[in-house]
Amino acid sequence: MTLVRTVGEVRAIVAKWRAEGLSLALTPTMGALHEGHLSLVRRAGSLADRTIASIFVNPSQFAPHEDFSSYPRREAEDLALLKAEGCDLVFAPSAEEMYPEGFQTSVSVASISQGLCGASRPHFFGGVATVVCKLLNQVRPDFAVFGEKDYQQLLVIRRMVRDLDMPVEIIGAPIVREEDGLAMSSRNAYLNADERRKAGALNKVLAKMAERLARGDDVGETIHFARTALGDAGVASIDYLEVRNALTLESAGSGALTAPSRIFAAIFLGKTRLIDNWPVEPAWQHAPR
Ligand code: AMP
Predict the structure, then answer these.
(1) Cα 49 to ligand 1 centre (Å)
(2) CB within 8 A of 67, min separation 6: which ones?
């Protein structure tokens, strides 16, 4: 496994692989890797001849009050994990390499970036789209793998790639969870024991919501039930809890679901913000015709 820190080095290695006719798959990450990230690297390995992972804590997707400086950084451990997965190349650039002096371009994906995480983190998807666009241009992979853990992000990137005619296939991979169902996240490390226990309620409430919605329950009533259940589990602060169309992210409205949907939640436990989401199919047999 080779570690490089400059765009020039990435391009040289990728050019050599391309000349040999090899296919490439990229997994972008911010490091502090866990089993969720590694599942993406494995997926990348199953898709292409060579796998590349990037590790870059992207400053432009954090607001000044957010956790950029405290975000966990564990490069040595990350490299050992990636090597054990058979990753071929790691690109871990500095902020100066990614954003040299004079940098002034940004990529903005309009409506699908609004609402959910875009509402509470207005700077976020612009930062993500810009850095992912750069990484895709730097590496020029055939495939790029992203987790459904950040479902809105996955849709934003799919939209960007389609809109800008970028020659890459975006692959979505399922959420990897802890034993109690908590979605794995580098930010779970911030939780104290009490918060960690409460965090385990989130996925269970989403699963119950999915069950109710799948049998035809009213969306508004189901959200009300879930807010109460989260409160009972000690989750005092909910950023959002919504049901939206799984492809367009349009709000599901009221009544029974009529289209494949996704339940989205963001909660605060202390200062830590956690997100999760859950798929739900409409109860066609109950839907009014
Ligand atoms: P991050 O390092 O948090 O920016 O995440 C890098 C990639 O890993 C993104 O595509 C995430 O959606 C994905 N990812 C993070 N956590 C998980 C998880 N628990 N399961 C699957 N993918 C994940």
Answers:
(1) 22
(2) 187, 190
